[in-house]
Amino acid sequence: MRWSPLLKSAKRGFLYPLQWSGLTAWVAQTAWRRSRLVILCYHGISLEDEHRWHPSLFITPEVFRARLDLLADRGYTVLPLAEAVCRLFEGRLPPRAAAITFDDGLYDFYAEAFPALRAHGFPATVYLTSYYSETQRPVFDSVCSYILWKAGPGAFDGEPFVGTPGRLALGTSAERADVQARIRRHAAAAGLSAHEKDDLARRLAEKLGVDYDRIVARRLFHLMTPGELREISRHGMDVQLHTHRHRTPRERGAFDREIADNRRAVTAVLGERLLEHFCYPNGDIAPCFLPWLAEGRIRTATTCEPGLASRGDHPLLLPRVLDSALLSPVEFEAWLSGLSSFLPTLRRSRDWRRRGGREAPVRAGDR
Length: 367
Ligand SMILES: [Zn+2]
Hints:
By secondary structure, the chain is an alpha/beta fold. The chain folds into two domains: 5-135 and 226-354, Glycoside hydrolase/deacetylase (TIM Barrel), CATH 3.20.20.370; 140-217. Helix content is 49%, strand content 14%. It has 18 helices and twelve strands. The strands form three sheets. Strands 1, 4, 5, 6, 9, 10, 11 and 12 form an eight-stranded parallel beta sheet that branches. A two-stranded parallel ribbon has the order 2-3. A two-stranded antiparallel ribbon has the order 7-8. Helix 5 runs parallel beside helix 7 (107-120) and helix 9 runs antiparallel to helix 11. The longest helix has 19 residues, at 252-270. The radius of gyration is 21 Å and the shape is globular. Mean pLDDT is 90; it is low at 346-367.
């Protein structure tokens, strides 16, 4: 079930009196909550206006700092993910346990999240998709989507970008999504290299009057450099696996290669270490992945399925709470406390997890 905007605002209105009545704080200190772990999921902290482009993936630095202040003020214990999951399954979690995860390893983590986390002494896990860390260009799909949004309403001759003649409209988010999908398909069909895709994105920006040099200079949609990864790692941030090219092939050899290339890239930068925690790119899960991950020495994997993790969960199907610009403070706190677990939005997810993921793949979050 998906919340319609009306239902979502009704839910938000419903949560305020529950918080004022003290119910949210009461749930947070129950034995039920103590046997659960909230794993927070972030993607990006805006360097400019990315939260306006994609509010489900980006939040502002101010909102992120407010989230960390709230975790500290309400007495949540933020644990490293590996320790938190270990203690979850051993039944040894402290009260109000939380873990923080960031998907992809974007530069904005280094610029904005890392200093804020350090100020609180909070650890975090960064699931690194390593390919764009090596190439150091804007992530192609994201930057194309951002350019189309930044251009504003209008239409343009799309042939150089999608390979077929005709004008492409950018009036609505659906039109922009369609254009972006056509550009992605065209780049894939043409077998463009990373350099050629970057050149295509630059030409798209020039065509639409968007300043590509500024995007590159501000490092929007760039991943962290090896030096930045080493620095965050030295200061308590754990770098783990998210596939090398941000994809999850259904063919065993290709899937294993994604994990192996990802491991090789992280190890080359950070040295030999335990790489046994994984996050599904795009929240894309198929039942065949579970034995492949287990045989690949992966102990835990996190999803984009919303919820608090419990001992009843499969360690390779751990739910998370996706924090974003769309989540109000009262909703965020309802998730931390566990109160939101009792609201109907999770029914499908819990049933799905209980069946061990034997259902159609889930697609949410990410790119
Ligand atoms: Zn991702």
